[in-house]
Amino acid sequence: MDFAEVKKSSRQIFAGKIIKVRVDTVELPNGREAARECVEHPGAVAVIARDDQDRVCMVRQYRYPVGEMLWEIPAGKLSPGEDPLECARRELLEETGITAATWEKLYCYYTTPGFTDEVMHLYLATGLIRGDNQPDEDEFLDVEMFPYPEACAMMRRGEIKDGKTLIALLHLGQRE
Predict the structure, then answer these.
(1) Is there a single domain that holds both residue 54 and residue 95?
(2) Looking at the DSSP assignment, which residues form a beta bridge with residue 19?
(3) 104 counts as catalytic
(4) By the 8 A CB rule, do 88 and 106 touch?
(5) Which domain CATH number covers 92?
(6) pLDDT for the residue 78
(7) Is the pLDDT of residue 26 over 90?
């Protein structure tokens, strides 16, 4: 059976700096109609930076929507038309001061497909060179290198709650 829903109408209800929100009326496979609230997002990148001593770089920052300080891998929003790899390089440098000799694209995935079209591009960066970070004027963060086993322990203790970071750490464990 084809479960595709067909858009009948669409109404934008919000347009902000980062996201747009629309409400679509769709026809369901059974012929009935339903409303779908959709958040449009330009996409993002995330970088798991791993050094020669098996340490991973994470940043700690306050995330207003959840009201908590979170440990996360470096990440950022794509600009319109921006190449994801170039965005990953820019974000890693801005947030951590790190440049990398080697880049590998790991995954492209939908962050929360139940309500947003955001696509996350996940990269592994190795051959790291440390420098000074250059955060945006509205970014306040701590940068720390964690031994991979300690980052996994933090994950098990529930100290890492960010989805992209959990995916990246679990991926590294599968590469071993």
Answers:
(1) yes
(2) none
(3) no
(4) no
(5) 3.90.79.10
(6) 97
(7) yes
Sign of CA dihedral 165, 58, 55, 149: negative
Q: Report the alpha-carbon distance of residue 120 to residue 128 in Å, rounded.
A: 22
Nearest to 151 by CA among 58, 46, 45: 58
Non-local (6+) Cβ contacts of 49 within 8 A are: 56, 57, 73, 74, 92, 96, 98, 100, 125, 126, 128
How do residues 51-83 score in pLDDT, each as one tens digit?
999 999 999 999 999 999 999 999 999 998 999
Q: Is the dihedral angle over the CA atoms 140, 145, 146, 152 positive or is it negative?
A: positive
Q: What residues pair up with 75 in beta bridges, in sequence order?
A: 46
pLDDT tens by residue, 91-148: 999 999 999 999 999 999 999 999 999 999 999 999 999 988 887 788 899 999 999 9
- Residue pair 76/54 in contact (Cβ under 8 Å)? The answer is no
Name the catalytic one among 40, 86, 104, 137. 137
Q: Measured between alpha carbons, how far is 84 from 122 in angstroms, rounded to an integer?
A: 9
Report the domain count for the chain.
2
Residue 160 within a domain: yes
Distance CA 173, CA 176 (A): 6
